């Protein structure tokens, strides 16, 4: 209060001082509302901006207060759950429909949505503040000028970039980050569409197929430490825990969100660029495979995601969901099996059959219709464990269908990404998207076949960024664009298996990430 009294003139009553104290608290909360690292200087700077604006114009002050309240209240619950806005956030917004938006909102604890009521009360209380005179106004304005231009100047000197609004103040940074990331998403979409309309350049040299049916099952949002096959105490994977085949114990996804992960797993990467036209479907087509893709995730229609576009390169494809993205409302994963049973029996030399599941996508209780066999921590965690049990049952049924086909077969199962554990050991315990911890990327990978006789373990790290090499070795396809320096299927060490892609699209070392609360 003494600082406030020193700065203000003719605004020294107790009631006014209380209002200015609440204004400072309002500035503090607004700076915490966007998930950025907290800096007290940002709070002080925003507070001085509010006082200065009020000393010039009551209307502009009220307008600024209203804008800050609306923006910060809108994003505060999201920031508390997922952190600051980034490329992945805007990518999800672009490729999500209303149902998936509702699913996202349902993963946020309800009491987070009550917090904006606090800032609303503050906004009403401080809305009529009027600063008659401001002590040291020239000094304050000089400080604000230096504070606001120092970061843009530093960026220009160090990086040659002109970013006038890079002030560091969270509300300003949020707006600029939204605009910048949306621009990047638009550029990425344009590049994707261009790549997907470009013919592939595969030239397979030879194809030595060991099986007639090659089956890929892509799971959704599965952390390996929640599978009994990987040591989880609840027996939710009776098939994977006992079936003959190979369990990869250190398999990591390319990224921690579906589109980014599968785009970087299933297509060719050369340097910094991912060539979406050169993907596993176009490769298999060129190698003489008959290709099928059955998906319980959505198709956009004229503006496809990269993954749905891969699917549409198949000789036959079917989307159970017709929405803008995967909302998981309607058809279940088991509904995919009807089409699979018939194509397995087709008399073709080699077939590639891909099943893309909704699996364990949050909210897991939407996947299991709120049902579970065993309670663990919270209803949502219990449903998540149950969703894995149901995926395991689906794998078992696919194997039965493969056996009934009378043809040789090999099946591969992996998940697109892991999740982050929130609120452990509480009634609100849940799993949601994240990119800062190892468990956001540790996923199951299991392979079995018609000639598997015993259980084996591949204990060395494998990164899905190198999935094409593994896929080519599995299917017997050889192409000069695909690296063959290491046997990805064998239990031997391979180089360059430690990279993952975060929400910002930056590649980091998986080994440098921290540990999440383990499954228990």
UniProtKB/TrEMBL annotation:
Residues forming coiled coils: none
Residue ranges of the TM segments: 20-38, 59-82, 102-127, 139-157
Boundaries of every Sulfatase N-terminal domain copy: 212-477
GO molecular function, one term: phosphotransferase activity, phosphate group as acceptor
GO annotation terms (biological process): lipopolysaccharide core region biosynthetic process
Pfam families the UniProt entry points to: Sulfatase
Transmembrane listed as a keyword: yes
Keywords: Cell membrane, Membrane, Transferase, Transmembrane, Transmembrane helix
Main subcellular location: membrane
Localization per record: Cell membrane
Family to which this protein belongs: Belongs to the phosphoethanolamine transferase family.
PANTHER family assigned: INNER MEMBRANE PROTEIN, PHOSPHOETHANOLAMINE TRANSFERASE OPGE-RELATED
Name of protein: Sulfatase N-terminal domain-containing protein
Native organism: Rouxiella badensis
């Amino acid at each position: 209060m003494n600082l406030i009294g020193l700065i203000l003139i003719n605004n020294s009553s107790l009631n006014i001082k209380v209002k200015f104290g609440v204004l400072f608290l309002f500035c503090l909360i607004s700076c915490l509302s966007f998930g950025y690292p907290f800096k007290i200087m940002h709070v002080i700077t925003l507070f001085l901006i509010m006082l200065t604006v009020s000393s010039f114009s009551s209307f502009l002050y009220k307008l600024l207060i209203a804008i800050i309240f609306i923006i910060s209240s809108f994003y505060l619950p999201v920031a508390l759950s997922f952190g600051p806005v980034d490329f992945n956030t805007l990518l999800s917004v672009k490729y999500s429909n209303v149902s998936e938006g509702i699913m996202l909102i349902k993963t946020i604890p309800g009491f987070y949505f009550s917090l904006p009521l606090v800032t609303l009360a503050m906004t009403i209380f401080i809305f009529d503040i009027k600063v008659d005179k401001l002590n040291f106004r020239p000094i304050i304005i000089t400080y604000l000028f230096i504070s606001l231009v120092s970061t843009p100047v530093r960026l220009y000197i160090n990086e040659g970039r002109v970013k006038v609004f890079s002030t560091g103040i969270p509300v300003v940074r949020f707006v600029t980050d939204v605009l910048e990331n949306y621009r990047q998403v638009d550029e990425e979409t344009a590049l994707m569409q261009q790549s997907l309309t470009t013919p592939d350049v595969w030239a397979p040299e030879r194809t030595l197929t060991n099986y007639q049916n090659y089956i890929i099952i892509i799971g959704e949002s599965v952390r390996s430490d929640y599978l009994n096959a990987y040591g989880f105490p609840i027996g939710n994977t009776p098939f994977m825990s006992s079936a003959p085949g190979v369990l990869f114990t250190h398999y990591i996804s390319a990224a921690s969100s579906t589109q980014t992960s599968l785009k970087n797993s299933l297509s060719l990467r050369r340097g910094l660029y991912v060539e979406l036209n050169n993907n596993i479907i176009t490769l298999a087509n060129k190698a003489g495979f008959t290709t099928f893709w059955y998906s319980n995730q959505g198709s956009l229609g004229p503006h496809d995601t990269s993954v749905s576009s891969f699917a549409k390169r198949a000789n036959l494809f079917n989307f159970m969901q017709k929405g803008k993205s995967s909302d998981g409302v309607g058809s279940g994963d088991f509904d995919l099996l009807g089409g699979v049973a018939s194509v397995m029996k087709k008399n073709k030399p080699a077939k590639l059959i891909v099943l893309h599941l909704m699996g364990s996508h949050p909210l897991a209780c939407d996947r299991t219709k709120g049902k579970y066999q065993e309670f663990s921590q919270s209803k949502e965690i219990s449903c998540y464990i149950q969703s894995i049990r149901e995926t395991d049952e689906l794998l078992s049924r696919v194997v039965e269908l493969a056996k009934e086909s009378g043809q040789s077969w090999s099946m591969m199962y992996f998940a697109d990404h892991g999740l982050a554990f929130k609120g452990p050991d509480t009634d609100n315990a849940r799993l949601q998207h994240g990119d800062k911890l190892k468990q956001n990327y540790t996923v199951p990978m299991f392979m079995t076949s018609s000639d598997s006789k015993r259980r084996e373990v591949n204990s060395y790290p494998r990164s899905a960024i190198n999935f094409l090499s593994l896929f080519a070795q599995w299917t017997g396809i050889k192409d000069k664009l695909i690296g063959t320096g290491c046997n990805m299927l064998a239990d031997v060490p391979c180089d360059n298996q430690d990279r993952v892609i975060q929400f910002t699209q930056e590649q980091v070392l998986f080994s440098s990430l921290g540990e999440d609360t383990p499954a228990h």
